[in-house]
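To whoever picks this up:

The nightly regression suite flagged MBL fold metallo-hydrolase as changed. Nothing in the input moved, so I suspect the structure step. Input below, exactly as stored in the fixture:
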Amino acid sequence: MDIQFVGAAQTVTGSMHVVRTEHATVLLDCGLFQGRRRESFEYNRRLRVPAREVSAVVLSHAHIDHSGALPMLAKNGFDGLVYATPATRDLAALMLRDAAAIQQADARYLNKQSVREGREDELVEPIYGEEDVLDAISRFVSVPYHRSIPIADGVRLTFFDAGHVLGSAITVLDLEERGKKRRLVFTGDLGRAGRPILRDPEVPEGADVLITESTYGDRLHDGVDKMEDDLARVVTRTVARGGKVFIPSFALERAQEVIFALKKLRKAGQIPRVPVYVDSPLTVRITDVFKLHPECYDAEARALLRGTDTPFDFEDLEYVEDKERSKQLGGEGSAIIISASGMCEAGRILHHLKNGVEDPRNTVLIVGYQAQHTLGRRLVERRARVRIFGVERERRADVVVLNGFSAHADQRDLVAYADACRARGPAGTIALVHGEPQPQRVLADKMRERGHGSIVIPAPNDKLEIA
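Regenerated output under the current build:
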């Protein structure tokens, strides 16, 4: 038995890990790499696993850096099944269709650039299309939390709640080969205890190998209460000077958390009454999926549903799908505009930033992780000039980062989770994935201080024997 770390190895995106036994090849996640447009496109054009050899795919959650290469897998001959929670199945159907549209838009953009620069021999096709998405979606099998099922010869799967996004799962694989039994636990993206809407992450019993994310392995997040107070201050300050608050937000989870926080602040009278727009068709559709899966909610969110209230609606909140309505938002007064994509690499947020980033009255509020080489990262770095739609623009708008909204565990959470796994049963090797090298090294040192001896930080395509 072994594990090969194909993606999200010493980087954050492109999650993909191959578990091989004598009789089966199981893929943990099948995500796209995200970063510079051309670099990402070129990297993602080549599938890095032999699709026809894969027995089954286990999907931790629906974010595109974990699910976005599934249509590529289907396109290249995968004929097995994809196992996910019911909510992840529903969300992935939306996310993958949106990803296909982005692939087509990226191909058009790159081809236009190549023609303009006289490189007609470098024209590209989209990585995959709608038919590949439909093929991938048709292979989904939904598995509720805590139900153990066989997915391949000598491989049983059980999902536990990861508390990261709606439907996110910690994957437990019980492996058997030649009478030898081993348990592998893969956190996927691990959430944080005490966050709104979702339940806290669960801890399964024992792990011969624990594969854990490490995105924020070198830092600590602010608490949820401080996060909401900071949000109120940003909104109040921006509205007082007549500006808009632009919130680039991942369509899945982050947008819904921001909406829920704004609802509570509005109800408590902590923010001024200004229009709030959710300007993202995908976010609108995903929020509808949230309403279908209250089984994933924590006690506070379920209590709202038992009354006549809902976590995702309040007065002055407008969900915008129509493109013409979206264009009108730039001409109105103070407002809060939540729009995708979360890293500012695609979607309507680019139009809002184009129109608003040069106005010093405005605020760009960053509420999620920004990968290297993205516009979002350049905003976080507070660059004086940023390129939007190929044009350099003065960045005069204020930029505020609220890490308290992060759906990823911080250093304290990650160390505590490793401790909790060890307390529940045998503890073996810990593999740190889904993180950049510096945070991973810091986290590894912290874990060793807690007595965790066998820790590896795999490079791309490294293999780990499951002893």
